[in-house]
Structure prediction request, 361 residues.
Amino acid sequence: MPPSALLVCAALGVPALGPSGASAHLRGVAWALRHRGFPLRVVAAKESDPRGVWGAMPVAVETAPIPGWPSWLGRLRERREAWLTARLAEVANRGPAPSFTWERWSLFSDVGARVRAKTGAPWVLEVNAPLAMERARFETVYDPAYAEAWERRVLPQADRVLVVSSWLARWVVNERGVSPHRVRIVPNGVEAYPGDRAATRASLGLTDEPVVGFLGSMKPWHGAERAYALAESLGAVALMVGANPPPPPPGVRVILTGQVDEARSADLVAAMDLGLAPYGPESPPWFCPLKLLAYRAQGTPALASDIGDARRLVGEGGEVLPPGDKSAWISAARRWLGRRVTPNVRTWGDVVDEGLVGLVG
Prediction:
């Protein structure tokens, strides 16, 4: 029998069939594991949520019942999440013993450790952010000491810790006590859909006008409004692909597609002349933007703020620039307009191969 895989995500905000990049990441890993011949189980806190069903999983998603939670108990949120982890571990341990567990790290989850305690299966823990720090920045951590203690206890236990950036590699070692030999830097991947540039531009009513684009959800720190400013300076169309775009200013031609699936996003990225990642200087340095990998996969030149590992991700397929330096961005855009670059497709299969090398035969 080939080695078998257990894929786990205990995050309530990352349903297996959700619309976010985190959910797409989970699906990408699942399909990559399946395509590499691993018999697979997927255990997640949620299969979907009110945002709808997006994409598909190669196998049925196993979940644990989630009881209601009154708002006045919000201060006990962390304990609830830890309780849910224990319920998910029970679900995971009901099935056949896996050869390994691949877990997307959730702040109060140690499902992989609980599975290993019962089965001996190695635990691969995928870390995408310093979660207590991230939650404190964008939401509320009701018990910071409890959250930090959980991180310090759980992270060093994993047999292998996969991080998506060099910042995270330093953080898990220096701040959370993970042994350096257990850490691997494994950037994200994308689905390898070939985008149809000509047909997509025609369907959008685009002819020869330049198109600057932005892919992904548009939170305030993502800098999406800077795409409008750049389009205005260049006399270009702003193609905005994702949810929650900021209101466009008057006088700028803007195409808003809303949230789309991965295949359609590949077409839309191919239709762009420039793909933008215009994060502001306040943006966190630890993440690995899927949009940069998507731009590179379609041969669309990428312009990105010089934050975190952007320089390595962009490589020769574009340029990194000082965050918020409007004149530098305009000059770079003029240099890159009219050019295409060699596509560089980093797949989720690459992610799985790098994550398991030397651990699973």
Remarks:
- The first strand starts at residue 5 and ends at 9.
- The chain has a mean pLDDT of 94.
- The chain is about 35% helix and 15% strand.
